[in-house]
Amino acid sequence: MTPHVEPDPQAGAAVKAADRAHVFHSWSAQGLIDPLAVAGAEGSYFWDYDGNRYLDFTSGLVYTNIGYQHPKVVAAVQEQAGKLATFAPAFAVDVRSEAARLIAERTPGDLDKIFFTNGGAEAVENAVRMARLHTGRTKLLSAYRSYHGATSTAINLTGDPRRWASDTASAGVVHFWAPFLYRSPFYAATEAEECARALQHLEDTIAFEGPATIAAIILETVPGTAGIMTPPPGYLTGVREICDKYGIVFILDEVMAGFGRTGKWFAAEHFDVVPDLMTFAKGVNSGYVPLGGVAISAEIAATFDKRPYPGGLTYSGHPLACAAAVATLQVMEEEKVVEHAAHIGETVLGPGLRELAERHPSVGEVRGTGVFWALDLVKNKETREPLVPYNAAGEANAPMAAFAAAAKKQGLWPFVNMNRTHAVPACNVSEAEAKEGLAALDAALAVADEHTA
Fold first, then answer.
1. Which of 44, 234, 240, 314 has its CA 20 to 30 A from that of 68?
2. DSSP letter string, 343-404
């Protein structure tokens, strides 16, 4: 694939100048960033105004599950814009109903009612609101090493440093340790030990917090930005049992893991578990138009049969977003994208990343499934000391910055967070593209190796 426009550095400079003059960027010190001016994108690639092309191993922010500019989805949005570009959420609209039906067909169990939001954070906000109203309780439990969004309650539920600046300890959130054998907080030696001890820790936390005060436990089915730590066998089933025991609502956050990313429609399918509420966004329509939502069980939906649900959004179920969702789900079905993601993970990414780990002293562990992988980079494989400290910045983060720069030099745009790089390409990434990404990672990891002991 080649850029569809001739290089135009002058146009790129103008785009960047306008950005720096007027755009306020997320999670950034505004005076210290230098955003790349993007000229175009297609499939698994994007390019800048200088003609440099990058294989996107980030899928945007892990949401372009069918790649950029899929013609069928673009056409569906264009057609919907000509038919009915927008309409208020209180009305029944054909494309909104069809999007909800197609999503409900794929969710596990009886999660058959769909509340639409504009994205994942709003989905989390509404899911915990439903849980609190359903139970009459207020307290929420969530895991360290998690991300649930940047809005008021969602950021408090988050278990990484992005929470710190907004956490006033007043949101009714209690954090606990979820299982992560490679960096076990429970001194476990096996997955079975990690699972058992993590479940005991959770139940102990519930006991000391007061079971009758807890509305919900929320977990990312497979934590994403925090490190793609697949839970050990039995853990999510155990959480389900604990929730049932104490009348606690079980929420699974599938905003990043859903819609094919793990090689299943939803990651919950890997564990044969059905939550009471499930949040989604991102891959539901490959991010072409903002859309998220909550899939709701019959029991919780019944709470609001005669009692008004006190929540809503102006753009809930926006027709353009729903048209993109319908087209995306149809494309994924027709092109067997979910099956392809599983195949690429099993035959290319998984084996290829594990082979890199054998050769590079900077790779401590490889984790993942489908097109959802993380490489835990370390200074020393024996001690497992991270390549950079937790939440490192500036000079302390220099080894990861050098790795990222080396990847970009190889034509790969990497997903980097703390001491990890994630391999999260589009779910329909080709075998050749996946191998191209592995080769670029191979070269970039040689730079990370220079910082090992």
1. 314
2. HHIIIIIHHHHHHHHHH-TTEEEEEEETTEEEEEEBS-TTT--BSS-TT--GGGGHHHHHHH
Residue 123 in contact with residue 277, Cβ under 8 Å? no
323 in Cβ contact with 80 (< 8 Å): yes
Flag residues of the chain having pLDDT under 50: 1
Contact 174, 215 (CB under 8 A): no
- CA 271, CA 257: separation in Å to the nearest integer? 13
- Taking each helix axis as running N to C, give the angle between helix 337-344 and helix 319-334, from 0 to 180 degrees, rounded to the nearest 10: 60
Dist CA 270 CA 263 (whole Å):
9
| Complete DSSP assignment for 57-126 | SSHHHHT-TT-BT-HHHHHHHHHHHHH-S---TTS--HHHHHHHHHHHHHSSTT--EEEEESSHHHHHHH
Distance CA 406, CA 47 (A): 17
Phi, psi of 41 (to 5 degrees): -155, 150
Q: Positive or negative CA dihedral for 163, 264, 278, 323?
A: positive
Closest to 60 in 3D by CA, of 41, 78, 76, 74:
41
Distance, CA of 98 to CA of 42 (rounded, Å): 27
Q: What is the 3-state secondary structure (H, E, C) of 279-329?
A: EECHHHCCCCCCCEEEEECHHHHHHCCCCCCCCCCCCCCCHHHHHHHHHHH
Q: List the strands of the sheet with 249-253, edge to edge.
A: 113-117, 292-296, 277-280, 249-253, 214-220, 139-143, 173-176
**Distance between CA atoms of 373 and 261, rounded to whole angstroms?**
10
> Which amino acid makes up residue 312?
G
Backbone angles phi, psi at 29, to 5 degrees: -80, 115
Closest among 320, 328, 290 to 121, alpha carbons compared: 290
Q: pLDDT tens, 96-147?
A: 999 999 999 999 999 999 999 999 999 999 999 999 999 999 999 999 999 9
Which structure tokens are listed for 422? Answer: 């994630």
